[in-house]
Design brief:
about 350 residues; Rossmann fold; two-stranded antiparallel ribbon; 2 domains; alpha/beta; Arc Repressor Mutant, subunit A
């Protein structure tokens, strides 16, 4: 079982501490077994968590056998990193342990020197301070999370769940991650490169919203050559009214949403089948393999082949394995669908950005 150690330091931010716990403890494998063993540890038996005092059961020795270490943020960013913590984290990193920070936990990770020469993010309010304090780190304040392979960093608040779901998906695949997302009432739609602060967020469409039937229809017919006029005709309205209502309820345009639905379908096929790119391009609704590759690269940040390798590893070469694919687009718990929608038989792939081996994060 994959062991996750959450390191609580003085003045730990409670949400940063508990959000990963929520995500990982709710993760179940297809046979019902838990996907993770979770330990909360600290350099001292009691930790000041602001409104309350946290008593932990594990010391820094819990980092020794952890497969993943999570570093929650702290309220006071001026607190020095205890030498014992720094040494324990660097030792874990040398063993190849995956280390991820939540929100201002990036300051803790940066203080170890492990982020030097790498790209990272944190809460946008603290991004300038992180860049000033650690000039060797390339700070990107405009994304939800950055995956540098062994080291990952996330922005604040809900971005912690985005990062955790991304890691769950890398560990166990999209179906397990989608199930964890539904249990956390969390959409899988948001990608790592999405802006932290956006004027038109992509909230879940409330059940009963006027666009809900249309979104379901778009998911089902994403493989077809649909125009804005086709979508407006289906909605029984003019294109102008369609655009206005669509943006009001989803935060994007009909065609942009359709493109994302096609990318989700393509990701699912890349993860769960051995179909060639040409077939996936057709089944996902792209006019040609070239158009598919170009769109996939722009949205996901890597090629379809590299994506398949990143999320399937050696399984990508297993030509005998083909998983049945639903006729309609895998309906996820996407950001544009009701948060408590029934789980599909086969979960979709969210638009998430993998880190290529030795490459840079998106």
């Amino acid at each position: 079982m994959h062991t996750v150690a959450v390191l609580a330091l003085d003045q730990v931010i409670p949400f940063d501490l508990t959000a990963p716990m929520e995500a990982f403890t709710r993760t179940r494998l297809p046979d019902g077994r838990p996907g993770y063993r979770l330990k909360v540890c600290a350099p001292t038996e009691e930790v000041n968590a602001g409104a309350f005092t946290l008593r932990v059961h594990h010391g820094l020795e819990a980092l020794t056998d952890a497969d993943t270490i999570l570093l929650p943020g702290q309220e006071d960013l001026t607190l020095p990193l205890p030498p014992a913590v720094r040494e324990a984290l660097r030792t874990a990193a040398a063993r190849g342990t995956r280390i991820a920070s939540v929100c201002t936990g990036a300051f803790v990770l940066a203080a170890t020197g492990l982020l030097d020469g790498r790209r990272a993010t944190t809460h946008w309010v603290a991004a300038a301070a992180l860049a000033e304090r650690h000039p060797a780190v390339t700070v990107d304040p405009d994304v939800l999370y950055v995956d540098e392979g062994q080291f990952l960093t996330s922005a604040g608040a809900a971005a912690a769940l985005d990062l955790c779901l991304h890691m769950i998906r890398k560990d166990y695949g999209s179906a397990v991650a989608a199930d964890a997302a539904r249990l956390s009432v969390m959409p899988l739609e948001r990608e790592g490169g999405q802006a932290q602060f956006i004027v038109h967020p992509h909230p879940p469409v409330p059940a009963g919203a006027t666009m809900e039937p249309l979104l379901a229809w778009l998911e089902e017919h994403a493989d077809q050559d649909l125009t804005l006029d086709d979508i407006a005709a289906r909605a029984g309205t003019s294109t102008r009214t369609l655009n206005r209502r669509f943006r009001e309820q989803t935060g994007t345009t009909p065609l942009q949403w359709l493109h994302r639905a096609r990318i989700r379908r393509a990701q699912y096929l890349l993860e769960n089948t051995t179909y060639p790119v040409e077939r996936i391009a057709h089944q996902a609704g792209f006019g040609s393999p070239t158009a598919f590759r170009d769109r996939f690269k722009r949205v996901v940040g890597t090629s379809p082949y590299a994506y398949r390798r990143a999320f399937r590893g050696d399984a990508a070469d297993d030509t005998a394995r083909v998983v049945p694919v639903p006729v309609s687009a895998p309906a996820p718990a996407p950001a544009l669908a009701p948060a408590l929608a029934p789980a599909p038989a086969l979960a979709p792939a969210p638009v998430l950005v993998p880190a290529p081996a030795g490459g840079t994060a998106r």
